[in-house]
Predict the structure.
Amino acid sequence: MNNISENTPELVAENCQMIKEMLRDFCEKEIRPNIMKWDESQEFPIPLFKKLGELGLMGVLVPQEYGGAGFGYHEYVTVVSEISKVDGSIGLSVAAHNSLCTGHIMQFGNEEQKKRWLPKLASGEWIGAWGLTEPNTGSDAGNMKTTAVRDGDHWVINGTKNFITHGISGDVAVVMTRTGEAGDSHGMSAFVVERGTPGFTGGKKENKLGMRASETAEMIFDNCRVPADNLLGEVGEGFVQALKILDGGRISIAALGLGIAQGALDAAVAYSQERQQFNQSISKFQGISFKIADMA
Ligand SMILES: Cc1cc2nc3c(=O)[nH]c(=O)nc-3n(C[C@H](O)[C@H](O)[C@H](O)COP(=O)(O)OP(=O)(O)OC[C@H]3O[C@@H](n4cnc5c(N)ncnc54)[C@H](O)[C@@H]3O)c2cc1C
């Protein structure tokens, strides 16, 4: 979470305003007409993310030298909350792509790794996934069972991650693995695994009650051989890296919640002004009109 924008407060405010205006148009045209279709079919709309990439919103925090927008967290929160006002699923996927997978490579990748993966992620050409959670280790992620064992100039990964955003459709994943003793917070390491690597497949997709256009699925590693160059940072640093990435993830989830709440309030106010009972809109009745007046 070390991406502190060096922009002046005035420029940050201008950027946020520009993002709001751009996203209001984009969401009305590209997202709102499809919300029910995507939700009912649980379709993860990949082409939409390519369009968001063209707007610079798949690498919000990525420096411009790696193809990103080079913004800071104020702009990032604006992006996630504006999208989530209209569709929380899309907000969740944008957040997971930006702050988890892309953020991890940006913070802990070496120069060669950043040049290799960040431009594709920031442009939206590739969608990112980030795998920490396992069936029996959610909050207790330090007890993960997925292992990586060194074999020459490769590491061999075995195990299953679940509840992973873009677990099937992600083109590249950052995966936390055990490389040391169970229970040792310095016994875990993070690797980048590209889709198409033999032994790496997507598994079961969750049938969720909400956020249904955001894909949540298993990632399965079966003797998956990953080049040693794909290790992020040092051996044993993976868990500490993951906790730092989750600090940024909490900002994402707060922005998501804020956007969803604002979207729900906007919809409720609009409905109260349209719905007629006793020959007037229900927004004119005291219980509702007081609330709307409070918001003004
Ligand atoms: C839509 C969605 C997308 C996700 N995307 C990703 C992703 O991209 N990558 C990834 O790695 N994971 C992802 N996750 C997984 C998510 O990070 C886990 O769900 C989360 O870590 C919680 O784990 P759990 O569901 O196993 O709950 P559990 O750990 O079983 O917790 C269940 C309940 O017990 C409580 N609890 C647990 N331990 C304690 C304690 N010590 N004290 C008090 N209360 C406690 C929890 O707060 C919770 O309310 C996603 C989950 C969802 C729902």
About this structure: The chain has two domains: 9-127+243-265, 128-242.
